[in-house]
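Data card: per-record layout.
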Amino acid sequence: MRSGMEDRRVSTQASQAGSQKTGSQKTGNQKAGSAGTGMARTLRITFSLRNTYRVNNILYALKQIPLVGRILPETLYQEPGLKILANIISVLWEIFAALIGKGVYFLILLGAAALYPSPEKRALFLYLMVICTVLGGFVNTYMFNPTKDKYYALILLRMDARSYTLVNYGYALIKLAAAYLLFGLLTGGLVDLPVWQRVLLPLFAVGVKLFAAAYMLRDYEKTGNASNENKVGPLYWAALFLGLAAAFGLPAIGIFLPETASLIFMGLGVALGAFSARRILRFAFYREMYQELLGDWMDQMDKGGASKTASAARKQSEKAISADTGITSSRNGFEYLNELFIKRHQRILWRAAEKIAFVCLILVLAALIALSLYPEVKTVVNELTMQFLPYFVFILYAINRGTGFTQALFINCDSSLLTYSFYKKPGQILKLFRIRLREIIKINLLPAFVIGAGLAVLLFASGGTDNPVNYAVLVVSVLCMSVFFSVHYLMIYYLLQPYTAGAEMKSGTYKIVMTVTYFVCYLMMRVQMPTFIFGLMTIVFCVAYSVIACVVVYRMAPKTFKLRL
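The structure for this 565-residue chain is written out next.
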């Protein structure tokens, strides 16, 4: 499998950069005078390891892009020019990843502070910052996130666990502080934050992270169980939900901390962080802790190299499968195969769609109650219903079950059947494609119908329209949006089949297409067009896209619908 080959390639290349240094590092760490040199050496090895892994992934992704992959040489990983390009992309991605998340985070808090009616924007912003930063300190710990680069460094290369952890955690905190300081200085003026408060923001964020890490290290010393931020229980989710409700719900009714209280809380966070740094520096069981955290990686590599993400996806899918007991079908051929698949995956297909439909129904009923209690908003709701249909492109994109459907198809069906030649014949592919398309359309139409019918009812309850055709256009256009996403996801799956035999996604083109799909749907929210015109355009486009999809799948899927290496 490719992931196993990649692990050996990365570990070999990283070893060339750091194996000699790692050996001398052990001796150096025993001498107090060379502590700084040991940390700097660890940082260099870490960057070499991480960059090697990223570069190999970038080169592999380039090789998977149609046309581009044919131009690139087979000895891709040995080409110095392409490696330089990949290194540049890797550095740019490091900078982008460090900034984009925090930029969006600051914009969300600023937007929330601006939307609430309270005139105390500065106090409200600081309150939101305090609550959300505390939640983020425990949700995104950096230290307790088992990742592949940690497996390479600590398990394969046997780097000093304490030195590696402190260097990488310190680097993560520096990036965090830099992003907070940059966006604090840039956006603080929008809520009239004094300069000293803008400078306090990164100190508070770092302090919370240090306190959270120290608390989890202390918990490990007491219980022997390492906290894994990717494996949390119901109490964790309940606390997170309550925290978010307090952050964004209470201000809606005018309840939030005054500015002075938030500043005192931030100062306390800085003090706790400074106090917690001592425990982090003196903790003596980093290797034991990471051996427990990285246990899944070690088991997976021993079993053939499937990635942690892929293994988790497979396990999650297997848990959601109903037992075979009582599941039968009276159909034949592909219809028999499809019916068994649908029945076995009720929990992740129909039940998920039913839950989404139920939530949508509750929201529609709540809106109708609001219209009856506050008649003065009927005009606004009527105008929104007639002008903002394009917003529902993104909403239908978000709730569509296409990705879950295709992933389940591969893991529990196609990964085995694609080894048979009859399964890849054009006629058979098109026949099964139509059957599966019918099923995923039926699943997605349930919540779409609730949304479309709900919009029509809201339009009628808010004052109606002079053109009765608008009611039908609202319902039909939303249904067509749902059909479009069903066709789109299934077609892309057949044309780009992104999974390896180990259920690991390895298609750069697939990721690009999914990213473009997201941005196009997001940009549709900026379109303001009358419901009648946009609805008709949506219906025509959906019909044309469905016909083209069937033709393209028939002609190209026999060559593209295959297992990846």
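Known properties of this structure: The chain has two domains: 2-302, 333-560. The mean pLDDT is 78.

See the next section for split statistics.
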